[in-house]
Amino acid sequence: MMRKKLICIALIVGIQLSVIFPFSIGIASGGEIIGQEKAGGYFYVVKKEISSFEWEIGYRNSHSIIKEDKNNKLDLEKFHKIVNEISRQRFKLLLSVLYLSILLSALLFVFKKKTKESKKGGVIFISGLLTITTYIILKTSIELYISCQEAKFLYLVLTQ
């Protein structure tokens, strides 16, 4: 019985740590394409040309092909960074919501226990994790909204 509790606690803490610490997912490239990502309806594909880079950027069904030059290089790099950020934030939000559902299930399990003494400690521990997870979900949701607004702005700047 104690072993199951330790495994459960280790699993909960492990998931919590994976949500708290940010990470990025790299995309393998091949041929001329040196980078691509799609997130939140926005996307980019970077192709290496002979002496420059060609960017295909878009939002949903609309897309534009842009040659990188000194005038738009900074905005293209920002668009690249923000689309990657949206992808990471969406993944983090998904993990957080899944973790929240696991915690709520664990809380329901603790409430169904017969002994009051074991209930109290479990409820306090899970409530603390629920509070942290809810904070992470709210923070990530706000960050995702801001990132989408920034991507929208950059897309309009680059395509106008």
| Helix count, DSSP H or I runs of 4 or more residues | 3
Helical content stands at 55-70%
Strand content: 15-25%
Q: Looking across the biggest beta sheet, what order are the strands in?
A: 1-2-3-4
* Mean pLDDT across every amino acid position: 82
Shape: elongated
What's the N-to-C terminus distance? 64 Å
The SSE order reads: HEEEEHH
The low-confidence runs, each spanning 5 or more residues with pLDDT under 50, are 22-31
What would you call the structural class? Answer: alpha+beta
Number of strands: 4
Whole-angstrom Rg: 22 Å
Tally of domains? 1
Biggest sheet, open or closed, and with what strands and sense?
Answer: 4 strands, antiparallel
Task: Characterise this structure.
The protein is of the alpha+beta class. It has one domain (28-159). The protein has helices at 2-20, 73-111, 116-159; strands spanning 33-39, 42-48, 53-59, 62-67. The protein has a 4-stranded antiparallel β-sheet with strand order 1-2-3-4, covered by helices on one side. Helix 2 (73-111) runs antiparallel to helix 3 (116-159). It is elongated. It starts with a helix and ends with a helix. 16% of the residues are buried.
How are the secondary structure elements laid out?
Elements: H1 2-20, E1 33-39, E2 42-48, E3 53-59, E4 62-67, H2 73-111, H3 116-159
Summarize the structure.
The protein is an alpha+beta fold. The protein has helices at 2-20, 73-111, 116-159, and strands spanning 33-39, 42-48, 53-59, 62-67. 64% of the residues lie in helices and 17% in strands.
Task: Summarize this structure as a short list of keywords or feature phrases.
4-stranded antiparallel β-sheet; alpha+beta; about 160 residues; elongated
